[in-house]
Amino acid sequence: xxxxxxxxxxxxxxxxxxxxxxxxxxxxxxxxxxxxxxxxxxxxxxxxxxxxxxxxxxxxxxxxxxxxxxxxxxxxxxxxxxxxxxxxxxxxxxxxxxxxxxxxxxxxxxxxxxxxxxxxxxxxxxxxxxxxxxxxxxxxxxxxxxxxxxxxxxxxxxxxxxxxxxxxxxxxxxxxxxxxxxxxxxxxxxxxxxxxxxxxxxxxxxxxxxxxxxxxxxxxxxxxxxxxxxxxxxxxxxxxxxxxxxxxxxxxxxxxxxxxxxxxxxxxxxxxxxxxxxxxxxxxxxxxxxxxxxxxxxxxxxxxxxxxxxxxxxxxxxxxxxxxxxxxxxxxxxxxxxxxxxxxxxxxxxxxxxxxxxxxxxxxxxxxxxxxxxxxxxxxxxxxxxxxxxxxxxxxxxxxxxxxxxxxxxxxxxxxxxxxxxxxxxxxxxxxxxxxxxxxxxxxxxxxxxxxxxxxxxxxxxxxxxxxxxxxx
Length: 473
Hints:
Layout: H1 7-11, H2 19-22, E1 37-44, E2 47-56, E3 59-67, H3 69-77, E4 86-94, E5 99-107, E6 116-130, E7 133-147, E8 151-170, E9 173-200, E10 206-217, E11 220-232, E12 239-256, E13 259-260, E14 262-269, E15 278-279, E16 291-292, E17 295-320, E18 325-348, E19 355-380, E20 384-393, E21 396-409, E22 417-429, E23 432-442, E24 447-456, E25 459-472
Antiparallel strand pairs: 1-2, 1-25, 2-3, 3-6, 4-5, 6-7, 7-8, 8-9, 9-10, 9-11, 10-14, 11-12, 12-13, 12-17, 14-17, 15-16, 17-18, 18-19, 19-20, 19-21, 20-23, 21-22, 23-24, 24-25
């Protein structure tokens, strides 16, 4: 989800902020230094970013957009064809017992499938503030599809959101508290057709080739929520010494074709099979031509528990040392915890009654401490300023423990039974750094331009550019 960030913020690794960072914050909008209104427009790694903030009597109103609309605007300005994107789902139920299949695709206004890569991201938010209170609502939309001759990937997300914030000072200490929630409606499926090689056991040594079809479907809804609790021990004018605790959690609930859980299937055909079964279903509307299968597997996981938690305690200190020079430091520890349990079955084809049942659980713990520092040097106060900073990820650690119980039943297995296994994987990441530099040019006292370049480990190929224009009154 997009959140407006200034070039100063990015250049100083978040240690120093400006108006563009505060005008859409349910907690920080009161920091905005303006008389009546503020507006910005720019381009960064998200695409087009525009926003407005203004005071109307005792109320404050902020509106922001971030996303890929810049591509459509460019095509219209240059008088090119604009391919409006539409998300289309076709659900087909056939046979006895019923088989339900969903074909997801991106089409144009004439419902013609758009091949190749199609990506669009959009986040629109509205903030209303009064005194120490702020209320923000909005939604984020994401769509990514890839359509080629023998492969397709489709992913989409629609996420409405809301956040309520409260910011006040209790003597020398500033206190802020926010609670937020969102609901993600997420869809993901992939299909592929490829060639495989195998040895004909009836004629040992005779290599053959066949076709392999794979389909996975992983749709879910995810209610999520979080809180922010912060304390500012600075004087609020020239220094900022703030400690924030930010925590969020989400629970994913999987449901595919009106059935709980996730689904997947794959089939093999050796080119000589003259009888079914056919996969995908012969009367379905799937992307690829149905094939007679040598072997077919279907996977169902009706019982899935997927809990995700993240926390990010952060300390920031910044100070205006004089009229020309500001500095800041930031330290935060990112942490995450994921608990996943799955009950699933792998079904064999060719009329066998063989079933492989899995009962598995997985827990993942991740920790990533980061340290950053930045400076802002106003060579010509109110006219020209240079910003620079560096951030170091001190290390990263991730530990995943997986426990699986597998049960084999049916005529296909000569030694049916149950076996268990436990696997623990630990990954330690080495330090890495990123560097940023930029400048702010004030055309007038009210109009400015931010230009920024951010590089990871001095890799020119991973350098991101940001250009931002701001106007305030």
